[in-house]
Specification:
mainly alpha; two-stranded antiparallel sheet; 9 helices; 71% helix; transmembrane; ABC transporter permease; membrane; transmembrane helix
Length: 249
């Protein structure tokens, strides 16, 4: 028996470092997701045009990182689910660990992945503008950049990271629910689809209120509070569910 007693922080640190090495493929897949979303974004998110009797016509195309951010949110959501699978949980048994340390290491990994994914999504958005500027026939362009508007740039990065944390925590909770009972593999999509249909048909006001609460907050500070509180609740719920799962035999 070892005479060295490891603290919880030491165990979490070792598990976190192990997960960062073991899940390198997650970040490689993120690059693939960004490349695919970049291709989808080359056509622009919307466009408009006008012409006059003198023969002058103006076409306006709008390019943004919205599609890239959405693809990245899907990626981090799936990552949150994958990290709860049985094979991943069994990897933690290579350490002298408990469920608390495993959950904390998972949360730290997801927070790191969220920060990297959110920041990268915004940067790929700027790469999109550079590609479009050189490949398309553009006479005039406008937009924010790191050098031209650093405040807007860092607000965009912060907001993207907060979205990633929120969806990572939701994915982690979804994965834990599925691990508790496999029937939720089929039940959760059905419940989500049914709820979405109910909101879209029977209660549009509630749907708009939910959307505005999460996606239409104008204050970054208030949005940060909302996102972090919801994420903390989702992570806490995941930890509670993990304590109800059977131990490894």
């Amino acid at each position: 028996m070892s005479l060295t007693e490891m603290s919880l922080s030491d165990v979490v640190k070792r598990q976190y470092e192990f997960k960062m090495r073991a899940f390198l493929g997650v970040f490689i897949s993120m690059v693939g997701v960004h490349l695919i979303s970049l291709l989808f974004s080359l056509g622009g998110v919307s466009s408009s045009g006008t012409s006059s009797s003198t023969g002058i016509s103006i076409d306006v195309s709008y390019y943004s990182a919205d599609i890239i951010v959405i693809f990245t949110m899907v990626w981090i959501f799936i990552t949150g689910i994958l990290i709860t699978t049985k094979s991943v949980r069994y990897d933690d048994f290579t350490f002298v660990a408990n469920r608390l340390s495993s959950n904390l290491a998972n949360v730290l990994f997801l927070l790191t992945a969220s920060a990297i994914g959110g920041a990268a999504a915004v940067l790929v958005g700027f790469l999109l503008k550079v590609i479009v500027f050189f490949l398309a026939d553009i006479q005039y362009s406008t937009g924010n950049s790191l050098m031209g508007a650093p405040a807007e740039f860092f607000i965009a990065v912060t907001a993207a990271i907060l979205y990633m944390i929120l969806f990572a925590s939701l994915g982690y909770l979804t994965g834990m629910i599925v691990q508790v009972n496999k029937i939720f593999v089929f039940l959760l999509p059905a419940l989500f689809a049914g709820f979405a249909v109910y909101l879209g048909i029977s209660n549009v006001k509630l749907a708009k209120a939910i959307f505005d609460f999460i996606f239409a907050e104008s204050s970054l500070l208030l949005f940060a509070v909302k996102a972090l509180v919801l994420s903390a609740l989702f992570f806490a719920g995941s930890m509670f569910l993990s304590n109800r799962m059977e131990v490894r035999k």
